[in-house]
Automatic annotation (TrEMBL):
InterPro entries, A to Z: SNAPC1
Protein name, as recorded: Uncharacterized protein
Database matches in Pfam families: SNAPC1
Amino acid sequence: SMAVAPSSASRGQIIVQPPYFTSSTFVDAVREDVTLLIQSYADQYERARPVQPFTLFKDIWVSQGWTWIHFKIFDARSREIFLKVMMRMFTERTTVAEAPIRRVGALFGLYIFFNTQPSVSVPQLHSVSHIEVTSDLYDAIIHLPDTLDTEYLALLRPHVIYVLSDFSKVGAFHILPHSRVHPLNPRELPRELVVEDVTTKKRGRPSKRERKKKAKDSLVALNKWL
């Protein structure tokens, strides 16, 4: 395991080490947040059947505090990893293994996250121009509209087509080989597993809930000093 901690840069700046963003501390907490986001969307869509389903998603995005996600990390080297990991947290939820409504929520989240990277800010923030996806995942994403063929999901279809068209116009997707050859770097997330010190660890293995709580607490602690 790797103990990931902030490191001090020159001129008194505090920088989060890039490995933090590929560690279980960050990845597990963000996965939980993404799950909450897309499940909230699925639940509210089912109840409201909104005429403007993308507007509903944006409202949930704002209400859950995602608006400020880009202003957490400023160092370019750390930000590069942060952005790539965040986008993987969304793309991994667009696979055919997910329910169509949750796939749409993940796609909407990816679209907003990608397009709200600050282009003009002081200080200027590093941004990425491509979203890395494996060829099989890309095929699944571009065929997502075909799965929205029921009355329940029909309202989503034009919005999904618009999002995919907009991604296509800017050449957003960087298509990598098939997932079976593991072309993404890191190969798997999380890459670093952060565990408690064995001298202070409680007897017995921590439950999944305890591990998630620890990851969440670490992320909250990070936010306090950022």
